[in-house]
Amino acid sequence: MESLSNYQELWDxxxxxxxxxxxxxxxxxxxxxxxxxxxxxxxxxxxxPSTYIETKINKIYLNVIQEALEPIVFNDYKFVFKTKEKxxxxxxxxxxxxxRLKSNNNLDxxxxxxxxxxxxxxxxxxxSAMKVAETPGVMNPLxxxxxxxxxxxxxxxxxxxxxxxxxxxxxxxYVPCINFVKDYQYASQTKNMEAFIxxxxxxxxxxxxxxxxxxxxxxxxxxxxxxxxNELYLNHKQIVIASDKPANKLKxxxxxxxxxxxxxxxxxxxxxxxQRMSILKQKMEERNIQNDKxxxxxxxxxxxxxxxxxxxxxxALTRVLNYYxxxxxxxTIDLSFTMEALxxxxxxxxxxKTNDIDNVIDIIADFYQITRSELISSSRNQKYVxxxxxxxxxxxxKYDLTYSKIGKILGNRDHSTVMSGAxxxxxxxxxxxxxxxxxDTILAKLSKVDN
Length: 451
Ligand code: ADP
Ligand code: MG
Fold this sequence. Notes:
60% of the residues lie in helices and 9% in strands. By secondary structure, it is α/β, with parallel strands linked by helices. It is elongated, with a radius of gyration of 32 Å. Adenosine-5'-diphosphate (ADP) binds next to helix 6, helix 11 and helix 13.
């Protein structure tokens, strides 16, 4: 029983039975002109000529009909009588409701797998995301981590968009973790969990949680998320999580972080120069800008100066293009024009980097109750040496400065002294709890200043 004509045949047989059962004037008035229009689930939609007839059938004859037709109607199929206008309107309304529900999934269609530029820094994350989108629920959860501006949100959104496209019935929800936190807090404060349950617990097939590190702030929320996670996980529903750090570095309850670690874990790194060039070219293409509008040296200059955040890289390109428009938009954008356009931005970047470095020194000195000049001094007193080495370690690992640059900042020490200092801390961190907790505290203070 597949095509509509089969159902029409069934209805024709039914009409013969009805014609035998009913008085001729009744049959002619109500059923003669009816026909099968659509199949909706197990409802066979039979179109009747007017609302008057529709009402009459449904109010008076429905039982008679179902009874008479029992022998020929199988399974759960039933005939539903409507005028064509009414049926069409109802379908349109339902479709609206559905699109409204769907548009509530927080997906932004501009993030796709196609416009995600792949390279060494992100290919594993990309492939895993693709795999999860193709077969949701199999690799659970997918945990993506990496620094800000490297494409985590882009990948989460791309998974959501892809799944909605190939599994149109799937219920998908993208949610920044902070919204989950707020929703939960609101629900518990107002003691009304209904909307919360509706949003998170009703038949989600795919949950995309962004910036999970924001759950660090509350234990009750973590517990609630733990429940939600288990519910989805046990029902083989896909969970994808993005984070700025690996799961075991999150300051959350162990049972939650161990859940996060039980599936597929991938990281995204800083793209290399080639990849940054491809990204710039891709962004030009998205804006419909011809390749020859801007010189290759200009693109290289941008790619070389904006290394560790793709949003900033894209922002720099936008700035150059805007500056070009403002200046009249004539000729090719060359290197000197590009440098001029980015001058202020680069200056303020350099300045904020200097501020960051100053902060590191201040915070460490403060933590160990010594002065800046003691930290930088040539004294070999352990009281100063350890803080100084922590400083070396952080400037290397968090701010990615070269050893010789760090040496210059820390009282003109040479490259090898800095290297051995930073390496020593790195090694000791694995075994020395006291040192580890000191560095964690310093990092926490730093991140407060960063924000
Ligand atoms: P994150 O969530 O990791 O902070 P986003 O996903 O918001 O980073 O990415 C920042 C910006 O850079 C977005 O506009 C995004 O589209 C873009 N972007 C990031 N990675 C890529 C990539 N591989 N290809 C193209 N655009 C990217
Ligand atoms: Mg993000």
